[in-house]
Write a structure and sequence with these properties.
Blueprint: E1 2-8, E2 12-19, E3 24-25, E4 30-33, H1 40-53, E5 60-64, E6 68-69, E7 72-73, H2 88-96, E8 100-104, H3 105-116, E9 125-131, E10 135-141, E11 144-146, H4 162-166, H5 168-173, H6 178-196, E12 200-204, E13 224-226, H7 233-241
Parallel strand pairs: 1-5, 5-8, 9-12, 12-13
Antiparallel strand pairs: 1-2, 2-3, 2-4, 6-7, 9-10, 10-11
Helix pairs in contact: 1-2, 3-7
Bound molecules: beta-D-glucopyranose.
Length: 243
């Protein structure tokens, strides 16, 4: 079975058609920059362009960078405040005429890794962390998702949120080397470890491809591994939500 998976991020909206039996992308991935300000109507327009690009007529799974319950945004993450309480599945369905299934983006990325990637067959506590514009988290206990755990928004000193201190956007903003940024990210790993005592931590998002450059900074005594799907985990997991 094939499903269109879309990963809505703070800087890019990425999609591909995914074989949900194997986790493979059956098309090239297509990326459209997130519209300036990420207002609901503008993001819905990009979603519609994505559907048109793939000439897609079936169900769509979508990872979204906020808390999501029953298809509704319950926070605003790094996107516009007007997303609060928007019924995201309905907004995108009305725009495209297709059925949409929505989950938090990091929860979706984690689903992909638990099904087909670094978390496959892993029991106990597994935490997926996505490193991008924000810091996303997906928590799995014995393979089952505990939805909407938000570690990136935990307060941190004057930075206000941990993600403002240690996301990839903070590395770019403060012009840090991967090694210096890795020292910050290690603090986030320590927080994760303290709260969840995980058996495994999986890193996804753009920075997961650069793990060689910062792994010497990791001090937690838990295996920390890159996502098998690297930056595509969000697309693959998004498609799985719609099964
Ligand atoms: C949001 C999370 C999201 C993460 C990554 C954070 O700002 O609060 O819900 O998973 O960014 O996109």
């Amino acid at each position: 079975m094939e499903i269109l998976g879309i990963d809505v991020g703070g800087t890019g909206i990425k999609g591909a058609i995914v074989n949900v039996k194997t986790g493979e992308l059956v098309t090239e991935r297509h990326r459209i920059p997130t519209p300036e300000g990420a207002m609901p109507a503008d993001v819905a327009e990009v979603i519609s362009q994505m559907v048109t690009h793939f000439n897609w007529k079936g169900k769509v799974g979508c990872g979204f960078p906020t808390i999501i319950s029953a298809g509704k945004a319950r926070s605003c993450g790094n996107i516009d405040k007007s997303w609060m309480n928007v019924q995201v599945d309905e907004l995108f369905a009305t725009k495209t005429g297709l059925d949409f299934y929505i989950a938090n983006d990091a929860d979706a990325a984690g689903l992909a890794e638990m099904h087909f990637g670094a978390g496959k067959d892993k029991t106990g506590m597994v935490v997926m962390l996505t490193i991008g514009t924000g810091l996303g988290s997906g928590v799995f206990y014995n393979g089952k998702l505990v939805p909407n755990v938000e570690l990136g928004t935990v307060p941190y000193k004057e930075y206000k949120r941990f993600e403002y201190f240690a996301a990839d956007s903070a590395r770019k903003r403060d012009e840090l080397s991967y090694s210096d940024w890795g020292k910050r990210f290690d603090k986030f790993l320590k927080l994760t470890n303290r709260l969840f005592s995980p058996d495994l931590i999986i890193l996804g998002g753009g920075a997961s491809k650069k793990m060689k450059k910062f792994e010497h900074r990791i001090s937690v005594k838990v295996p920390v591994v890159p996502a098998k799907f690297e930056n595509n985990a969000g697309i693959v997991g998004a498609a799985l939500i719609a099964i």
